[in-house]
Amino acid sequence: MPDDPKLWVAFGTSGLALAGTIYTTIINHRNQNKQDSFKAHAERELATLNAKLQAERDKRLAQLDAEKIIPKFRDPLMHAAYDLQSRIFNIMKQAFLRVYYANGSPRDKEYAVENTVFLVAQFLGWTEAIRQEIQFLDLAGDDQTRSFRKLQDNIYTQLQTDALGSGFRLFAGEQRAVGELMIDRATGNPGCIGFATFVTDRKPALDHWLDPLRDDIKRMAIDTKPFEARLVSIQHSMIDLLAFLDPGYVRFPLSNRTKL
């Protein structure tokens, strides 16, 4: 029986079939592993690509948001900067305080002090409104907004530094406090209170920060020399800010932007 050729052929055929099945199973297993590995690799690559695209999208959206902020506040900030630099120019070159405070009527005196203080507070109000709008934005790729922040930081420094004397000085926290209290949110959009509200609706908290400036303004009516370095520095920065906001001299002509 064992010598029966047919039996050996059957055994051989069965063995080959089994070997083929085992081989096929091994190959399929290897192919499945390769497919699983390729699929996992592809999924990781896709996830990385999606994360990169999402990050780029978020960055671009942040840049678009940032690019909208400066135009949104351009006109009021530009007018605030222009009015402040103009008042400083008039104090230094036109004896504004000597004429209207030292030699003026009670009404003139009040206006000379209160309006000058208001012009400083108004500028701080608009700059604070912008700062609050952009503080959570990614500005790494927005050259325009970075340039604006640099100008803004320069003005903050000039108002607080001891290098320009102790007069007409507001520390950084005081500047922020004044700016916050000047912001009007009644309409839902951050703005700045006007001069009438500033005078008639006196805020004790705001006066706390601004009363030292009022005293300095009264002293300027007698002698501007102790305040000259800071006033000139601020006025120059206001002109530089106007050049950034209105480079084509559309709102204010070059003749009205004379540096001291």
How many strands, which pairing sense, and closed or not: the largest β-sheet?
A: 2 strands, antiparallel
Mean pLDDT: 84
> How are strands sequenced across the largest beta sheet?
1-2
- The residue fraction in helices comes out at over 70%
Number of helices: 8
Shape: rod-shaped
Distance between the termini: 123 Å
Q: Tell me the domain tally.
A: 1
Poorly predicted spans = none
The radius of gyration over CA amounts to 36 Å
Q: What portion of residues belong to β-strands?
A: under 5%
Structural class: mainly alpha
Give the total of beta strands: 2
Topology order in helix (H) and strand (E) letters = HHHHHEEHHH
What does this structure look like?
This protein has about 260 residues and is an all-alpha fold. The protein has one domain. It has helices spanning about 5-95, 95-100, 105-135, 145-160, 170-180, 195-200, 205-220, 230-245; strands spanning about 185, 190. Helix 2 crosses helix 3 (about 105-135). The protein is rod-shaped and about 140 Å long.
What attributes does this structure have?
single chain; mainly alpha; two-stranded antiparallel sheet; 2% strand
Summarize the structure.
It contains 8 helices and 2 strands, in the order αααααββααα. It has 260 residues and is mainly α. The protein has one domain (67-256).
